[in-house]
User: Which sequence fits this backbone?
């Protein structure tokens, strides 16, 4: 790491510290009523209290569980469907228009439908989360499969590789940069929809915690929940980037 | 020794052709690319195909590979009709950058052919090392294609083709994108590899000197539609040598004949 990088990093931490200080100042001066806005000190205390009593742990686990199941289901289905559509020109021509209609559909519009059909259940949450998270993955997979170098398929033909071997040894690795980028986008979508489902269906999780805290005017708890959600989003996306770097090491060599 | 005998047999013409084009016509998108092409390539023969661009030489190679099916006529391999590509026919593509898997190392790329051939994974590393050594890439097993020069990538593609243990090697302007020095080095290496394996070769090039230098026989195609315009037997002694072969009177005579032919087709 060179000096410039270190300086930038220090500067970005300084900016973050300034924001927290400003927040503390506003809270101390009571520019906003403490009922609605706790200072960072109270939010931190609420976080510590929540974790030491175990309440926040279980809520965090609930949200992570919703997010992970929905995202994994979306990834498996998105890659499988995307691979089928992407590897066939005919499928692309026939299916693409329907996809173009479904894709921009706001997922929030699906929630009442899902509740009507599945009730206020975990299954409903799983369906909504995976429905929302599947699009970036599926579209990226379609694109990745459609963009495989045709020459490689000729190499595969001359080696008389089986259909399965062609998919796993040529098409999937070739599409993997696109697929992983799609999965990273979906991670954020999955987190958002987990919170929405918890709020709407009262499922155990940080969304539910945030809602209850707001209703009871426990602003410190509310902020603790929000901070924790932010951290969750950040940590999962960093983990995803690390996984991408590791899986796509060959691309780093290419640059 | 076996390969020398095979080559002698090929030149003397007693063996049945390994690859036979029988009145092959190919139309693509309503255009006749190749018309009524008949051609036999004997086992162990080194055949070079030259011609102006657009004369269908690459197409002829793809027909021999089984990547295209003729519109009419037949392409036979060992007296069997070619319906699809086969593992004993390996193709070296000109665009090595596209024909290698960028996510696999040099060893991984060679391994692809061994995996396709069903070699048990325990036996692969030794064979991969041997093949990489054969093409002059020892110690590069862990490199990705993107970390290698053009010449090295083409060597790697040749190694993968050799891993198929091909009876026939089809080479589509394999050195067209390389600089002159690399090109000459690889010409000699291909000659010695082929002599060692006894494989039949069809070698497409636009470089007339290269065709005469490498081949037992050179065929010149006429364009629109592609058909045979000239056929020359190259009776130059082997092993060939970059200096003495190219100064040989027979080489110069063939060169003049081939240049005149190409000039005439371009008018």
Assistant:
């Amino acid at each position: 790491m060179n000096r410039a990088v270190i300086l930038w990093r220090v500067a970005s931490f300084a900016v973050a510290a300034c924001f927290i200080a400003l927040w503390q100042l506003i809270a101390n001066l009571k520019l906003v009523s403490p009922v609605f806005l706790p200072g960072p000190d109270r939010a931190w205390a609420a976080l510590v209290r929540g974790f030491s009593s175990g309440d926040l742990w279980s809520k965090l686990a609930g949200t992570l569980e919703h997010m992970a199941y929905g995202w994994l289901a979306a990834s498996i289905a998105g890659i499988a469907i995307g691979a089928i559509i992407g590897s066939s020109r005919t499928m692309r021509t026939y299916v693409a228009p329907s996809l173009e209609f479904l894709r921009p559909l706001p997922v929030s519009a699906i929630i009442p439908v899902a509740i009507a059909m599945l009730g206020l259940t975990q299954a409903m949450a799983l369906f909504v989360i995976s429905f929302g998270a599947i699009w970036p993955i599926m579209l990226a997979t379609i694109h990745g499969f459609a963009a495989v170098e045709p020459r490689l398929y000729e190499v595969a033909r001359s080696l008389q590789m089986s259909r399965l071997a062609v998919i796993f040894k040529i098409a999937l690795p070739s599409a993997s940069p696109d697929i992983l980028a799609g999965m990273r986008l979906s991670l954020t979508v999955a987190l958002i929809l987990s919170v929405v489902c918890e709020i709407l269906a009262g499922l155990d999780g940080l969304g539910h915690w945030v809602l209850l805290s707001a209703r009871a005017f426990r602003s410190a708890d509310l902020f603790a929940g929000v901070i924790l959600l932010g951290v969750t989003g950040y940590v999962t996306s960093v983990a995803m980037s690390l996984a991408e770097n590791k899986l796509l090491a060959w691309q780093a060599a290419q640059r | 020794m076996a390969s020398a005998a095979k080559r002698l047999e090929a030149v003397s013409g007693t063996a049945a052709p390994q690859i036979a084009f029988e009145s092959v016509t190919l139309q693509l998108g309503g255009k006749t690319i190749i018309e009524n092409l008949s051609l036999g390539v004997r086992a162990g023969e080194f055949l070079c195909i030259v011609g102006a661009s657009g004369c269908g030489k690459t197409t002829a190679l793809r027909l021999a590979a089984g990547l295209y099916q003729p519109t009419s006529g037949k392409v036979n391999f060992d007296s069997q009709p070619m319906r699809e590509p086969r593992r004993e026919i390996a193709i070296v593509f000109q665009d090595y950058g596209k024909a290698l898997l960028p996510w696999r190392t040099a060893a991984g790329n060679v391994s692809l052919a061994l995996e396709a051939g069903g070699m048990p994974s325990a036996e692969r590393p030794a064979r991969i090392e041997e093949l990489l050594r054969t093409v002059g890439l020892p110690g590069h097993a862990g490199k990705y294609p993107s970390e290698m020069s053009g010449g090295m990538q083409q060597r790697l593609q040749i190694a993968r083709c050799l891993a198929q243990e091909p009876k026939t090697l089809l080479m589509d302007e394999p050195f067209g994108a390389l600089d002159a020095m690399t090109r000459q080095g690889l010409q000699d290496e291909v000659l010695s590899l082929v002599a060692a394996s006894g494989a039949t070769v069809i070698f497409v090039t636009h470089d007339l000197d290269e065709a005469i230098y490498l081949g037992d026989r050179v065929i010149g195609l006429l364009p629109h539609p592609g058909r045979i315009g000239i056929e020359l037997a190259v009776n130059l002694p082997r092993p060939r040598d970059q200096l003495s072969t190219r100064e040989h009177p027979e080489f110069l005579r063939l060169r003049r004949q081939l240049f005149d032919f190409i000039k005439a087709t371009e008018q």
